[in-house]
């Protein structure tokens, strides 16, 4: 039974929503992108359209159909790369990200995410010196300053970059579905971004353990925003892309396994990541064991990973409900500035449709 906010009232015996009222059935690809040249990044994850111009898609007579088809392809492949988007301005970047979510069954009251601490005076501005509440700016010069501070600390263990893996905005009740990042400038090398398929990680777990994971939720707490707002004496931004994303608690519980609303395939979601703080209702050692196992699957299965070597004005758009991503913090080793601008759409409250299956089962690909 749909509720007024576009979400389902159906909840499993484990307290996990079982459907998405705004997108009750998976969406099928219509073929509107067939004339575009592309290549797959790996057999499992990622696709690049080397010649597509996002501005041309936005202005096409069948723009809605094309954008919906892009939503399907991004959700099937996890992440899509575009190159040389020199003419894509911030307004069009926001528009494409918003429409990919809107045309693919996002709850209709939702929009682009607003970062909770947008008012923080330490936030970076856009390259032209302005700010936009829907755009998150990343910049390697800021990273270099952080590294300069860290150098003074004596390391107690070898570097561990596995903590970089995350899914955007999981600290929100309604997290991000699509994130769209454009790299405005980049050094000749360094700063690669990696994406890992949550579908494939799900498929590599034994069926009995998968069934158990489907009963679990995880707390995704991010207390730093509240502290930052208190120290800076400014108000938290709200609502943040959904009427459900309000307040300053930032500690929702999300299912460890979720169904992607567009493909209908199951993916590991809140079992691992920067914002995941605890698997609920298990002992501490079990929590640690489950999260370490998820992370081990990611770091020992690099055939589940797509890697972007950035070029100037390249873009990546991904579906956070079925991939995690990780930055490579090595730009302090090279000359040149890496500046990226990211918009994120806010999707539905994560759910598991009991009728959904893994990607391999849905496509008839044998499990390995
Ligand atoms: Fe991210």
TrEMBL record:
It comes from the Eukaryota. Pfam families: TauD. SUPFAM superfamilies: Clavaminate synthase-like. Its cofactor is Fe(2+). GO terms for molecular function: 2-oxoglutarate-dependent dioxygenase activity; metal ion binding. Transmembrane segments: none annotated. InterPro entries: AtsK-like, TauD-like_sf, TauD/TfdA-like. One of its GO terms (cellular component) is cytoplasm. The keyword 4Fe-4S does not apply. Residues 39-329 form the TauD/TfdA-like domain. The keyword Oxidoreductase applies. Keywords: Dioxygenase, Iron, Metal-binding, Oxidoreductase. Belongs to the TfdA dioxygenase family. This is Taurine catabolism dioxygenase. It comes from Polyplosphaeria fusca.
């Amino acid at each position: 039974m749909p509720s007024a906010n576009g979400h389902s009232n159906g909840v499993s015996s484990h307290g996990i929503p079982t459907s998405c009222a705004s997108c009750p059935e998976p969406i099928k690809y219509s073929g509107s992108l067939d004339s575009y040249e592309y290549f797959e990044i790996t057999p499992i994850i990622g696709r690049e359209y080397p010649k597509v111009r996002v501005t041309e898609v936005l202005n096409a007579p069948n723009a809605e159909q094309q954008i919906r088809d892009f939503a399907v392809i991004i959700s099937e492949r996890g992440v899509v790369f575009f190159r040389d988007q020199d003419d894509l301005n911030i307004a069009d970047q926001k528009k494409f990200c918003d429409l990919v979510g809107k045309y693919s069954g996002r709850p209709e009251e939702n929009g682009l995410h607003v970062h909770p601490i947008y008012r923080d005076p330490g936030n970076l501005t856009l390259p032209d010196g302005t700010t936009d509440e829907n755009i998150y700016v990343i910049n390697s010069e800021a990273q270099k300053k952080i590294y300069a501070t860290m150098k003074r600390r004596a390391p107690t263990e070898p570097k561990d970059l596995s903590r970089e893996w995350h899914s955007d905005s999981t600290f929100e009740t309604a997290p991000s579905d699509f994130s769209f990042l454009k790299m405005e400038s980049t050094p000749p090398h360094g700063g690669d971004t990696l994406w890992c398929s949550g579908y494939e990680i799900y498929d590599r777990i034994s069926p009995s353990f998968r069934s158990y994971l489907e009963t679990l939720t995880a707390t995704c707490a991010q207390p730093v925003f509240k502290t930052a707002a208190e120290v800076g004496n400014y108000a938290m931004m709200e609502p943040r892309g959904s009427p459900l994303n309000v307040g300053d608690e930032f500690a929702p519980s999300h299912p460890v396994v979720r169904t992607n609303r567009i493909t209908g395939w199951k993916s590991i979601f809140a079992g691992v990541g920067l914002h995941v703080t605890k698997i609920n209702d298990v002992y501490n050692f079990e929590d640690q064991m489950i999260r370490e196992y998820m992370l081990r699957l990611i770091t020992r299965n690099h055939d589940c990973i797509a890697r972007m070597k950035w070029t100037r004005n390249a873009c990546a758009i991904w579906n956070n409900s079925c991939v995690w991503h990780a930055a490579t913090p090595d730009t302090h080793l090279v000359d040149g500035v890496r500046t990226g601008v990211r918009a994120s759409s806010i999707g539905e409250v994560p759910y598991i449709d009991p009728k959904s299956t893994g990607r391999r089962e849905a496509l008839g690909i044998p499990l390995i």
